[in-house]
Specification:
mainly beta, Methylamine Dehydrogenase, Chain H, 2 domains, 4-stranded antiparallel sheet, 1 helix, 12 strands, globular
Length: 219
Amino acid sequence: MSSDNRVPQIGKPDGASVTGVARIAVLLALLASAGCGGSTSANGGGGTSATIRGTIAVGTGPSAIAVDSTTNKIYVTDFGTIPTGIPCSMSGADVEAIDGATQAKTSVGFSRLNQVNAIHAALNLVSHKLYVQIIAYWNGINGDPCVPFSPGMEVFDTTSLQPPNGHIFVAAEAGIDVNSVTDTIYVTYPGVAGAVFVDDSNMQWLATIPVGLFRSVWQ
């Protein structure tokens, strides 16, 4: 994903603008002298400087993160490694639950023998369910190579953090988000007219909302 970060050139301000700028400068000076503004960035942007308070090592390829502010838990999905060979190798993909206070970690695997890659995740702050989109790999039959076979979504109950029992087929390349108030899951589905599928907590499709233009995932 790319973005254009260029800043447009600002023209010369008129007299009123200069006065406004001067007033803002005086206000910032007063706030700084009162100790109310924190430190400002060295580049003159006026923002508060950001600092890294620490790092927590998780997995081999962290792919998504979700935070439960009500329980102070952080959930990180590990993409793992792409399964290969006959039979498909274990990917090492999992979900790591991190205690925000102690930084202690607990890991839990997926229901599909860990021959999967974790792609996206979303958390319901009311039900405390974590929805993780995956792609599962399979050899097929007669010595077929290990290939992506079953894109889907698995649901973790973070109160017990046990491997999920259910699996629903959705596009692994899709984005996902959850409305915690209505307990509705929204999943974008590339390659199907850019549709947004609306799912409920019982893993049933409720509606399809066409958006954007069709784009084949094979192009």
